[in-house]
Design a protein that fits this description.
By secondary structure, the protein is of the alpha/beta class. It has a single domain, classed as Rossmann fold (3-Layer(aba) Sandwich). It contains nine helices and 16 strands. The longest helix has 18 residues. It comes from Bombella pluederhausensis. Keywords: Signal. Pfam families: Esterase.
Length: about 450
């Protein structure tokens, strides 16, 4: 049966009506949103948080504002900032070569590549099911955060950072709550039977998904047919709801551990096999994670902390910043510490447990494609001037670390692009999927 995809309709609904922006605290018209409004919903004038250390790099929690310009909700980052590793400028509307690794800078025009032209609707099977928190569901009870009125997403209005340590966010409005989520399974046509199948699993799927592009399932059909990627199952897992610290979504995606990967392995994949009547591969080379913003951080965590389960990672605007909540003193910088030391001490003397994880560890057998936009998020929660909430700097720091360690990776910096930028995703996703699934068997 062909799929006039509910998933496609959901994508268009979020993108056209601005729900994507509100879900991620993005600026949109006159809506009262956490990044751009004060407690009484009046626009904020400054881009950096109050009481931020922007002058002395030798003191803790330093925020470097060099290379930033522009007005609006987010500053514009210069891709040739000397803080960043060297990258190759691409001609406008040109994509990175599929066979190459390294750092690339996209031009400002985000044209649709040929894979999207005259693409037919998805032709495979779409199976959806719903999960509700229970004693056997995992992540029980869930977490939610009450918001003040009239601002619907007033994170900064219900939170304060720890005195003397802005890397710790106190969220008194957070409390236990049940959750409900949807899981979508897409099985392309003519899939091989009676053998384990590769799969791509992504967060922020289901009814509350935020993927801001065209029909992913139809694209997968076409790329399989043209032998750019192997036949595979695609699994979209809904989050537990909310956003950022004090929410179930933030708890699941921003926690830097193997917990989410273990939850997926125990509570999601067996149901996928049962309901879709498929066998999923246990070979980590045939398993890929994908995500957007915080679910992009989860995609990294699934592979980094469980390389026995996943080797391939694809992420747009991943939140490789200090979003982990509740605070974990064993990893005080959260996702920031994948690539950089905790910012609470000068980096040259940062001790354990504040050291960066990837630089200190042997190279893992991972294949990584990810992107940030030049207008990506910059300190969206104003009570946290912690030196660890610049999404672009996080992506650039990770690129340096991956390059120094000899990882198999491709990093894309997109000009004229905001957080999880829809035009950039549509432009790059075919190349990203093809790059990700090349037949590489090691780092």
């Amino acid at each position: 049966m062909s799929v006039d995809s509910p998933f496609r309709h959901q994508i268009l609904r979020f993108w056209k009506h601005g729900l994507l922006a509100s879900a991620l605290m993005l600026p949109l018209g006159n809506t009262c949103l956490a990044q751009t409004e004060s407690a009484d919903c009046k626009p904020l004038e400054a881009l950096q948080p109050p009481q931020a250390n922007t002058t002395d790099p030798h003191k803790p929690f330093y925020i470097d504002t060099s290379g930033l310009s522009g007005a609006g909700a987010m500053p514009v980052h210069d891709p040739h900032n000397p803080l960043y590793p060297k990258a190759t400028d691409l001609p406008d509307s040109t994509l990175p070569p599929v066979g190459k690794t390294g750092n690339y800078i996209l031009g400002p025009t985000h044209s649709l590549p040929p894979e999207w032209q005259k693409i037919p609707p998805a032709q495979g099977r779409l199976i959806s099911f719903t999960l509700t928190s229970s004693s056997t569901s995992g992540y029980n009870p869930g977490t939610t955060r009450d918001e003040p009125e009239p601002c619907a997403i007033g994170m900064k209005n219900v939170s304060t950072s720890q005195p003397g340590d802005p890397s710790i966010l106190n969220v008194p409005a957070a409390h236990p709550a049940p959750w409900t989520r949807t899981v979508d399974i897409y099985v392309p046509p003519n899939m091989p039977a009676n053998r384990p199948l590769p799969f791509l699993i992504f967060g922020d799927g289901g009814n509350n998904g935020i993927y801001p592009g065209r029909d992913l399932f139809a694209l997968v059909d076409r790329m399989i047919e043209e032998h750019h990627i192997p036949p595979m199952v695609v699994i979209g897992v809904g989050s537990g709801g909310g956003d950022a610290q004090g929410s179930e979504r933030g708890r699941e995606y921003d926690t830097m551990s193997g917990d989410y990967a273990d939850w997926v392995e125990t509570h999601i994949l067996p149901l996928v096999e049962q309901k879709a009547n498929v066998i999923l591969s246990h070979n980590p080379e045939e398993r890929a994670t994908m995500g957007f913003s915080s679910s992009g951080a989860a995609a990294f965590a699934m592979a980094w902390f469980r390389p026995n389960l996943y080797h391939r990672v694809l992420a747009y605007s991943p939140s490789l910043v200090n979003q982990q909540w509740p605070h974990n003193p064993a990893l005080p910088g959260g996702g920031w510490q994948l690539h950089s030391p905790w910012a609470g001490a000068p980096q040259a003397v940062s001790p354990e447990p504040g050291a960066a994880l990837i630089p200190a560890a042997p190279r893992a057998p991972l294949h990584i494609w990810y992107e940030v936009g030049d207008q990506d998020l910059f300190y969206p929660v104003r009570p946290m001037p912690d030196g660890m909430h610049d999404w672009v700097l996080a992506g650039e720091n990770l690129a340096r670390v991956l390059g120094d360690k000899g990882y198999d990776y491709q990093f894309v910096f997109s000009r004229n692009a905001q957080h999880i930028d829809g035009p950039t995703i549509e432009q790059t996703l075919p190349e990203a999927l093809e790059w990700l699934w090349q037949a590489r068997t090691g780092p």
